[in-house]
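Each letter names a residue; structure tokens follow underneath. Both lines appear below:
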Amino acid sequence: MDKETFRRHGYEFIDWVADYFEEVEKYPVRSTVKPGEIRAALPEKPPPSGEPMDNIFNDFREIILPGITHWQHPGWFAYFPANNSPASVLAELLTAGIGAQCMVWQTSPAATELEEVVMRWLGSMIGLPETMSGVIQDTASTATLCALLTAREKATGFESNRSGLRLPLCVYTSEEGHSSIDKDIKIAGYGLDYLRHIPTDRNFAMIPGELEKAIEKDRAEGLKPACVIGTIGTTSSTAVDPLAEIGPICRRHGLWFHVDAAYGGTAALLEEKKQLLAGSEYFDTFVFNPHKWMLTNFDCSAYFVRDEEALVRTFEIHPEYLKTGRDSEVKNYRDWGIQLGRRFRALKLWFVIRSYGVEGLKEMVREHIRLANLFKGWVEEDDRFELMAPVQFSLVCFRFKKDGLNERELDALNADLLEKVNRSGKVFLTHTSLKGRYALRMAIGQRTTQERHVRDAWALIIDTAGQL
């Protein structure tokens, strides 16, 4: 493809994306295709020779687009948001065009040094201790795996990297901890038998006394406690563990303390939410995702660590072909995580922070929290519905209720309500289970969501419930 052809298609694609930003509301939020439908529309074999870009782009619009679920739709209330923004998209274009592989300082000094600066900005924006250093990982799942691997090495005197994990190590998290913790426990070699899910209180937060009892029980049985994972904003209900109480327990027993704030960490931008980080002086590692609630394209996960040396010692490698004359003077982020190859993720985060400013980001978060509390009020005012969990951020957990139905029947009723609401194509909600009870999740956090979209969603919910 020559320069002029590239330019022509580039303009065409940018025009399409700009229109998509404005017109995404016309699409059904959740794709309506059936399983196998997209696959059946695609050729079984690749083309023997190149095809015109016009044909490829047409197939994107006609075949691929119908199979896309639109995360940037203002009626997106499912899971958590995975926002983008015009600034972030433009940065991704530049990143793709440059095509840098940023594994060490030498392979692009600007990528490393911009990441250092942006992560310092980010830590100060949410109020983390200045003693914590940051690095960008792909997702919180990977960041938590990094924390578990570092905790493993610290607990074994860095012997397990050399000789393997020989003594069982125990990890503790709330019964509401994210499912990725279970996966990471398997990958890191701890074994699921040594993952302890600590009971939660009525607000779905970890009970510190139960944590300490579990640690002491394992010690008495000859096991070695290694790591505690606390959460700011659990996935099911956005519960916040009492970190200021958990931290001293970790310190007292010599355990690594990792905090998963993948969604909720962004709220710490707000002065009125700074208490979320109470106990941060005890954090060993901390993660939150700008790709959720901070307008930065997926993927971009901000991982902070207090002990840089322990992190680097866990992951460092020194093959001859990666050595440079500057290694003693710079950070080589290849040694700060699992991946050797690294994308230039800092650029889009830099674009977003500069484009919106800290105050602009705060304004968006405050508005989403306001809308969630508005929705919460409607639920509380309608005796056909009930709240299922405290509203900590911009997620509302609720359910439809009918007199005379048992829990199993209520679960089925709400599952039916959810499917009918989602089938409308106007909104997309998801569900969870809270202490065995089915709950609907209204997650408000999409960049373009306005009050009218939340009102329309509530009107659709109550109208559908009336039909049931």
Remarks:
- The longest helix spans residues 346-381.
- DSSP finds 15 helices and twelve strands in the chain.
